[in-house]
Model the fold of this input.
Amino acid sequence: MPRAQPLGLGAHPSVRDTNINRLQGMRTLSEVTAALDETYPRHWAQGWDRVGPVCGRPDIAVRRVLCAVDVVPETVIEAIEGGCDLIVAHHPLLLRGVSSLDPSADYKGDLVHTLIERSIGLYVAHTNADVANPGVSDALAGRLGLADLRPLRPLDGPEHEDSGRGIGRIGRLSDVKFSALVEHAAKVLPATAWGIRAAGDPDRIVRTVAVCGGAGDGYLDDAVAAEADVYLTADLRHHPVSEHIARGGPALIDAAHWATERPWLDTVAERLSVLVDEVIVSDIDTDPWTIHQNSGVNRVES
Ligand SMILES: [Zn+2]
Done:
């Protein structure tokens, strides 16, 4: 399992700010979550989503923060071992209503108990971080080296006019073959057992690339409308992909869900590093797919 990557003092350009903050005293949980609320306002989240503080007393001091995509036993252990006072997660631990947090009945109840017993706060920034500028897909596009980014599906409303906020991003690359871009994506995205799979003509010349961190098959039509040559996202399914390719849409790259969102953790860490002593970015691969085997490679011809 990969080790966590510490982003301590001195590893970030804002050391001067951090020192000032240290002289002024520790940040409380409520101060850190207020800063996160300002960066990722909760009302930007989709209606079904559940974002913001989950647990943790507002007046606890926050010195160390763990940033993780998922709150699972492995990342909670990482937070405990790292001496963290707060976990900032992308995916909500408690998305649907619960009537019990019995720790013996479900791992989620056990995790909530563990966090409270250890006095570790939990805060979630999910679809509100997806649409932010910079947001989850900016970090993904940054890994690929895309230039001139704009939202794949801009947010509507006067608050968002000319804000650059919205779902997904679309950007430019200098001309490259699709097969080379697939190879490049596999190199620059965090490693997972899932890896990268792709659909489309390997010799197609790519100039415009759309990306969406997380499950993005709902935005295939937006990638078509934006005249992207390629759309990279996660969790693509057989029928939407099959029909999309048959219609001559953009070539597709399907990466592991975790790998498309992990790059954003660096953005959050940068924001938090001016507030607290240390930010740890979790590199524990929490993608649920852990075994990958190419089929047919050892097939014996009869
Ligand atoms: Zn996600």
